[in-house]
Design brief:
By secondary structure, the protein is of the alpha/beta class. It has helices at residues 10-20, 103-108, 117-123; strands spanning 82-87, 112-116, 129-135, 138-147, 154-158, 186-196. It is elongated and about 65 Å long.
């Protein structure tokens, strides 16, 4: 990469980080125990910081600001009556480039749309049925996972799976303060497909 690096081992890299980064100024390779050192580790606390903000915030008092409530950019309506929210499942990590290579993890968690018992009954959906999930941006097909853990009116789909690319369905709206996309709220329509998949894990 043209960096002209002359590192001989990992400790050389660690020592350079400590030399050029004030937050790690007290971190020495030889002082890192088997249990590690909790960041930040500066020249004032080379053993690390076991508990941050124990007595006060680093800057003194915490700075807080009231943010007026506002509804999400896209809310359910007659055409898209449910709320789609996305996120992670415990057994998979992000796009699954590593975790999906593990058969055991794939058996524990696959591409499934979690839907409440009440919504499933109203739509005639059974556990494992194939669904078409549609928003104003597009649609995907995915198996249903009917569960009491979901509240009525909300459908949860994990974003780890290329077979059901749910992030294509989310909105482009962003939070005006944090500037992050509203991945957690999108109006969605769920329909049962004729073809049925194998049964999902029982609730």
């Amino acid at each position: 990469m043209g960096g002209g690096w002359q590192y001989q081992n990992v400790s050389d890299i660690t020592n350079e980080i400590a030399r050029v980064t004030p937050q790690y100024a007290g971190l020495k390779w030889d002082n890192i125990s088997r249990d590690g050192v909790q960041w930040p580790s500066s020249k004032h606390n080379p053993a690390g910081t076991r508990i941050m903000h124990q007595m006060q915030f680093t800057r003194g008092k915490g700075q807080m600001e009231a943010i007026p409530f506002r509804y999400a950019a896209e809310l359910p309506d007659d055409d898209y009556p449910l709320v789609l929210t996305t996120g992670r499942v415990l057994e998979q990590f992000h796009t699954g480039t590593m975790t999906r290579k593990t058969a055991g993890l794939n058996k524990l968690a696959g591409p499934r749309a979690m839907i409440s018992v009440a919504d499933a009954e109203a739509l005639g959906i059974g556990n494992g049925d194939m669904l078409k999930v549609t928003t104003r941006r597009g649609e995907i097909e995915i198996a249903a996972f009917v569960t009491k853990r979901m509240q009525q009116g909300v459908v949860f789909i994990p974003f780890h799976f290329v077979e059901s690319p749910v992030n294509r369905l989310t909105t482009t709206a962003t939070d005006p303060h944090a500037k992050i996309p509203e991945f957690k709220v999108a109006a969605v329509r769920v329909e049962k497909l004729n073809a049925e998949s194998e049964s999902c894990l029982p609730d």
